[in-house]
Amino acid sequence: MKQQTASPEKEQQASITSENQMEHQPVVDDPSHKPGEKLKDKIALITGGGSGIGKAVAILFAKEGAKVVVNYNSGEEDAKDTEAIIKKYGGEVVLMQGDISKEEVCTELVEKTVQRYGRLDILVNNAGTQHHTESIEDIKTEDLIRTFQVNVFAMIWITRSAVPHMPKGGSIINTTSVTAYQGHGQLLDYSATKGAIVAFTRSLSASLAGKEIRVNGVAPGPIWTPLAMSSFDKESNKHHGEDTPLQRAGEPVEVAPSYLFLASKDASYMTGQVLHPNGGSIING
């Protein structure tokens, strides 16, 4: 995986918190998609569902019949846009703002979802954060702690709260990354969390097999999202994804079908697996 590099412009680029601030507007919806009711009447909770990949997943799930609860932290404008698109298609969506680096917020997300709908069929642990550093010496302890809190601790806290409310046939989908398999010299702690997510996914799948709850993951490659763009300078971002075999970055809408497949009955014989929408990079994982 080609390394993006920092420049003096990074400070300005790191201010990106919304899709509207991106020069390249991510594609999060496919108007030509013909729903097949694959998730009819399912209840889905998606963290980090306000923008990027989570936004595209929320929209696709709703179009396929799911009632969607979208958690987001910052980026209210993007979250409101997610809500508007889903409602445009006649879907049902509930926005829940909250910083999942806090255990009580994670518990509350699940409790409010269950209070409203009585159960939880699909959990998508998608929210994440990352901090660019030139070397391991530059990693700040506070950034390291927050990266693990958001990317790993929250995933475990939310899943722990959710499992008692999930029926047989339930699905948990965790977002890892191509960096878990290839590494990334400037995203050391982020890559470490994504490796932990792969291990957690495989372990949890074994733990929950007896309950007939499937646990899988998705490991996207370079995708057009505010998180990706906020970590590097403008010049690097212009070449985002060009080092993949397809020679371009992916759109969130191209990743969302992987989540739909894993959430639906189509993946009834899959657990402990990771899908790799990454532009063609072979990672043997």
Describe the protein in words.
- Belongs to the short-chain dehydrogenases/reductases (SDR) family.
- Residues 26-36 have a biased composition (Basic and acidic residues).
- This protein has 285 residues and is an alpha/beta fold.
- It has one domain (37-275): Rossmann fold.
- It is built from 10 helices and 7 strands.
- Strands 3-2-1-4-5-6-7 form a 7-stranded parallel β-sheet, with helices on both faces.
- Helix 2 (52-63) links the parallel strand 1 and strand 2.
- The two termini are 15 Å apart.
Tell me the strand percentage band: 5-15%
Distance between the termini: 15 Å
Strand order of the largest sheet: 3-2-1-4-5-6-7
Number of E-state strands: 7
Average predicted confidence as pLDDT: 90
Radius of gyration: 18 Å
Largest sheet: 7 strands, parallel
General form: globular
Task: Give the CATH architecture.
Answer: 3-Layer(aba) Sandwich
Q: Name the helicity range.
A: 25-40%
Provide the structure class. alpha/beta
CATH T-level fold name: Rossmann fold
Determine the CATH superfamily. Answer: NAD(P)-binding Rossmann-like Domain
Class in CATH?
Alpha Beta
Number of helices: 10
Element-by-element helix/strand order: HEHEHEHEHEHHEHHHE
How many structural domains in the coordinates?
1
* Parts with pLDDT < 50 across at least 5 consecutive residues: 1-14
GO molecular function, one term: oxidoreductase activity, acting on CH-OH group of donors
Keywords: Oxidoreductase
InterPro entries: NAD(P)-bd_dom_sf (IPR036291), Sc_DH/Rdtase_CS (IPR020904), SDR_fam (IPR002347)
Biased composition (Polar residues): 1-20
